[in-house]
User: Fold this.
Amino acid sequence: MVDCCSAPGLMPFAQALDTMLAAISPITDTETIALTEGLARILSTDITSPINVPPHNNSAMDGYAFAQASLVNQDTLTLAGRSMAGQPYQGTCQTGQCIRIMTGAKMPAGCDTVEMQENCQVADESVKFLAARKTGDNVRYAGEDIKQGQLVFAKGRRLTAIDIGVLASLGIHKLKVFRKLNVALIATGDELKALGEPLAEGDIFESNSYALAGMLKNLNVNVINFGVIVDDESAIRKAFLQADQQADAVISSGGVSVGDADYTKLVLEQIGEIAFWKIAMKPGKPFAFGKLPNSLFFGLPGNPVSAMVTADLLAMPALMKLQNCHSAPAITFKAKCLTDLRKSPGRMDFQRGVLSHNSDGELIVNSTGSQGSGILTSIAAANCYIVLPAEQGKVLAGEIVNVRLFERYFA
Ligand code: AMP
Ligand code: MG
Assistant:
């Protein structure tokens, strides 16, 4: 653990992320589930194919199968039988013969090529071939998609809908996956009211836990919601300890800076250990990462934009590591910024933007406007971050900036 006090000033974003990820040991518990339950689960073993896909050479077209050698001195062959999908031709196609064949049907013995029916003239029991073709045309070969024994998906893959289809094509109907994570959510603040409660003077509706729960559901973890905890040291300690008993990770929001009612840091120091505290990023400077006796702890700032952005860029990668998920690095693009952007050097900015393209196909990005850390609609309207390095100052319209598309679990 890095002591917050030994790092003078603010910790660079990349260092914070690396330090945090290095401190996390992924869970090891696994379970066996049905393929139909596999969506968004994480494989705990490599999957190699038990069969060739496709299992047999087959036709890519509705047409006629034959041996190319049969057509060296003639253009007409005798129709000798049929091969339908699931009902293969049982005999061997002889020189001078062809076989009626349907898409997906097994290639008959003795055939190496298929002509599509549009290029054939059929009369009685003979077929005239009208076009030139190469040996192997319109044949799909056994194992051309996946070879028996081939690595199909590596341990750590989060399964997509397509992956489920690929696994089904291999005949796999049971999977070994890592168990789901349990993640506790705690909102702290005297002013926060749960939905359905009346707002008294000075109150606001608690919203962070709703957005966070959505992100966590998209990550396919179990959410344990502790609701709102008031700004009271012992209430917060009790909630953190309870959450720690039930969860692999605890995410709180609010009370993480240095105000009079900010107890997160204090309580974390009493019952766990704190890894770092202030990150050179905007939004989101105050962010706590630490360990409770049984779980990881993420202390997000209360401001909704800061909470969401730190959850997205720090807590989510940490949870992915904890659940053994190997995720591809975020894709960044260069785009022309069409709006002026305010920024002073010092922190790395993650401004919210809308990435699109102009009529020439060039990538362009527009700011979503006011970037205040309380303005949650600045994320709702966006599809990407405009990522501005710490040392960068303001950006003028027309300059090229780096953008990073939002992850699928985010917004
Ligand atoms: P804090 O980090 O506790 O100082 O809170 C910073 C700002 O975020 C304050 O304006 C809080 O009212 C607001 N805030 C804190 N937690 C939440 C929450 N769960 N939902 C909505 N706003 C919040
Ligand atoms: Mg607060």
